[in-house]
Design a protein that fits this description.
This protein has 179 residues and is an alpha+beta fold. The chain has 2 domains: 3-17 and 82-178, PH-domain like; 20-81. The chain has helices spanning 20-46, 58-81, 122-126, 165-178; strands spanning 3-5, 10-16, 83-88, 92-98, 105-108, 112-119, 130-134, 137-141, 146-152, 157-161. The strands form 2 sheets. It has a 5-stranded antiparallel beta sheet. The protein is elongated and about 75 Å long. The two termini are 26 Å apart.
């Protein structure tokens, strides 16, 4: 649930991947690959005809098919269940990109030099969505082109994606005004 708790001055946002084209292409390529392996199993095991120029053993073909199907299921799981959770309060910013980060990453306000909501191009600037690193910037993004950019006093830059640009900007302004 995305929300701002004004009594406690806490901002929460939970995001999931929203690129249907990516998920559809994964499903199509997975079905096509599983179909090809399935055809190979049918042809080689049930019809007794070689599958390919250098056919595997029947057991090898079954194992290879199982491995490929399992890999696609893992990839679909990662896309389907990945969440980027951001919580901002008076003490700092906490975020986690599950299942790639098992623990929350916490950045205290004392560590932050500047914070601002920015627009960026995920593909051009960072090569896509997910956890990315480029040009000294660490990016956590699941969808869209808006994010909270944190310039840390250590010199590092962290960019955390957001789908709620207006609410986040308003919250940060209100939080700064109360400090």
């Amino acid at each position: 649930m995305d929300s701002i708790d004004k009594t406690a001055m806490i901002y929460r946002e939970k995001q999931r991947f929203k690129q249907p084209a990516v998920l559809i292409s994964l499903v199509i390529s997975g079905v096509a690959t599983a179909g090809l392996f399935g055809f190979g199993i049918y042809r080689q095991i049930f019809l007794g005809q070689r599958f390919g120029n250098h056919p595997m053993s029947n057991a090898g073909l079954i194992i290879a098919t199982a491995v490929v199907v399992c890999l696609y299921l893992v990839i679909l799981f990662l896309f389907g269940f990945s969440t980027l959770t951001t919580v901002i309060g008076k003490s700092g910013i906490r975020f986690r990109f599950f299942p790639f980060q098992m623990k929350d990453r916490v950045i205290r306000w004392e560590e932050i030099e500047t914070s601002e909501v920015v627009t960026f191009n995920p593909l051009r600037d960072y090569g896509g969505w997910g956890i990315r690193s480029k040009k000294g910037v660490r990016v956590y993004n699941v969808s869209g082109n808006k994010g909270l950019q944190l310039k840390l006093k250590s010199g590092k830059i962290i960019l955390i994606g957001t789908q709620l640009e207006t609410e986040l900007t308003r919250f940060l302004t209100e939080l700064k005004n109360r400090s």
